[in-house]
Structure formats: structure tokens, C-alpha cells
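Homework-ish question, so no full write-ups if that breaks the rules, but can someone show me the predicted structure for this set?
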Amino acid sequence: MSDYNFAYLDEQTKRMIRRAILKGLAIPGYQVPFASREMPMPYGWGTGGVQVSAAVLTPEDRFKVIDQGADDTTNAVSIRRFFEKTAGVAVTEATTEASVIQTRHRIPEAPLREDQILVYQVPIPEPLRFLEPSEVETRKMHSLEEYGLMHVKLYEDISQHGAIATAYAYPVKVEGRYVMDPSPIPKFDNPKLEMAGIQLFGAGREQRIYAVPPYTHVVSLDFDDYPFEPTKADHACDLCGATDSYLDELIMDDAGGRMFMCSDTDYCGTRCAAGHCGAQGTPLAEDAA
Amino acid sequence: MQAHALEGGFTNAPIDAARAFRGLMTAMARPGTICDVSGATAPAPLSVAAGTAILTLCDPDTPIYLGAACDTQDVRDWITFQTGAPFAPADKAMFAVGGWDDLPLAKFAIGTAEYPDRSATLIVEMPELSSHGATLSGPGIKDTASLSLPDCAAFQANAMLFPLGLDFIFTCADRLAALPRTTRVR
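A: Not a homework solution, just the prediction itself:
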């Protein structure tokens, strides 16, 4: 512990990040530039989320990290260990017990409470970037509220595929002003962006921080005749039987065998422990430890 | 420099600042919520909350404007020693500290269309702070909230500037609340 400043970053860096977070909360959906630091992990591994978490954590917090909903992937485990070591915070895998949750590409299934903070790792924060490569131009488009290009993109989806084919990183409009990339969460999660907890987004390589305060209006872009639809695999979880959770598809063998399971491991595990069982799950034995 | 400029800072800077920032962030994310903060003791007339907010957010990168009543040599020495923040006129300041009547609102930076974040944050010292007063609604507020504000028209005009505008932190003794530009005041 004594080898690191609390939560790794130096105090001046944390102040700079904290000022950016406050401006981000004051201007929901607007990407605040910040002087992202090199972190002891590569870009793409959540350096933005890690810097935001470092600026937000207090010693009293209980920290949870998920990667695509799972607590036990390499990325999630490394980041959780990183803050266990540098901030000495308690950690958990239970969504309901965590006060700060860092996430890559999912929003937990369990609704977040007012005292919880969700920190997203963001690869490309600019929703218009793949439509307009120039930062000068996209910045101007945001300032003029010129989002026609995004609607054209969704329209082209419809004209080519018969439906809006964008399935993740589905663009949203925040509080009627800024179009925002919710990070590559499945569009199934978009309705959860209006929540009781504070949502902070950090993009390390792209050097942007943005935020959505609790109870902020977040509207997924759509058309009157092609309304937004949160979609998931039309199946129940094969482990816990849940029909309301986002599912991962798992290939089981070379013969085309497959199963669907909750991407949120804590949600699935909690349900299994409560006695729910899916088509391929093992029923909970009465005397299980 | 007076010796008391050396006193009243954070005793454990990383921990004190982290806890104080949680209060500041909660206040800014949930307008109308009053949070307790502590850790710094600034010279009079600055409150504990204002001193703590300054130590948590200000450093050599952030020019500060001092309202007339706060602009004493003791306060200047304390801020200079504790944070290294330079002092600046209102139009160059990123932060301002002072009583409501001491802050020339029209002069502060409200950001630009392309960089609305380049706007000042005003730390307003209040004689009292309570959840009775103007009705607030907007991001961060479930239905409505109430907060004792020093004015109404000024905040309504500020909200009209969105996405530009000023953000406010109200401090009184060891408590603070905040009002970002998005909050609608009635």
C-alpha cells in the first residue's frame, strides 16, 4: 500500500479528472477533454474507466468490475486487483453490494440504486466518428446540434436491412441536446441508461470524459415508423432460466450444439443460488455448500 | 507569509480529497442535495466547505477569482500555499469564491459553443443552506427538489444559456449543495 498514492494516480491528475467529471455532470452527454495519463495497462483495456474510478473511489467503497457482464474475465480481474492493491478498497462480485462498478460493454441486470456509481470503459466516445473522421467537424456538428448524419446512417440501415441493424453502441440523445455514444453496450441495455445511479464514461486513448446524472432523459434515436427496439436472443437462459436478461451464445461442440446463458454472471449466479434452473442447468442440490 | 497559511490543509490529502470529491460529485449530480464535507479549515471568512472545495478542485492550473469580502491577505496566502492557484480577474477565472453579491455573474466565462466546459464554477458562500426555497427540476432530480437559493431570475437566465452557462456550488459551514446549468429553477 505504502508504495502507491491512494488509487495510483497523483493528486494533481485526480483534481484535473475530478474537474472534468463535474463539468461532464453539468453538461450531460457532452464529451469533456481531459489530459489522459498513461496507465500500467494498454489502451483498450479500460484506461479511461480506470482513471475515472481512481478519481472517484474513496476508502469506504466496495468495488466491482465487469467485462461483458462477467466478473471473472482477465480484464475485470486485473482491474479489480489493481484497485485492491493501490487503493486498498473492498471488492465484490455482487451488484447489489457494490458502491462503484466499473463496466466494459454492459449495464448490470439488477437495477442500480441511488448510492451506486457506474463507470464505463469507452473505446470511441464520439458517436459521429465513423461518419465524420475529423474532430474539428464533429465538434462543430455537436455545437450546431447538427445530427442529420446520424439519422441518415440509421435510415440507410433500414433501407438495406429492413430494420435498424445497429445492435450495440446505439446512439442516444441526452436531455434533448447531445447525441452520445453509450459505449458498446448492447441496445438491450439502452433503456437502463435512465437510472437512479450516477453514470460516468471514461475514454483513455481518446481523452474524453462524459457523464449522465441520475434520472436524466436518455432517448435512443429512432423514427416514428421504425421505433427503437431493445433486442436480445429469443431464448431463455439455459443455466438459470431467466427470460428477461441479455444472453451470450456459447458454441458447445463441432456438431452445432449451443447454449444461451446470461451475460451478467452475478445475475445468473444469484438466480441459480435461489433455486431457478434453466434447460441445461444443474438443479441446486439441497446439501450443496 | 503568515504562519497560519501553513495550517488548515488536508491532513491526509489523497483520502480527504477523495471523500470531499464524493460530496461534491453527489451534489453536482443531484442538484438540491446537501452534502457534508470536511477536511480543510480556511481562514475566515471562508467556510470549511468552501475551503475543502478549493483544496479538492484547485491547483496551479485553475485561476481563482475572490469576491470582495473574501479577498483578504490571509485568504490569499492560504490558497497560494495550499493549492498554488493563481488569482485572476472574473473574466479569466475558472473558479470564483465569494458571497452572492460579490460575484459579477456577467463577467465570468460561460464556455463556447464548441467547448461549453470552458466555463467558470462559482463557489457561493451562503449565510444559510436548507432544502426550503426554490423548486428545482432537471437532470439528477427524480421529480422536484428544493433548495434555498440567493436568487431565482439569475439561475433561470443561466439555464437559458444551456449548453453554455455557469455552474454553482453553495457552501455554508461544513455543508454544500450545487446547481449545474441544466437545473430549471421555479
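Now go work out the reasoning yourself. Hint: The mean pLDDT of chain A is 94.
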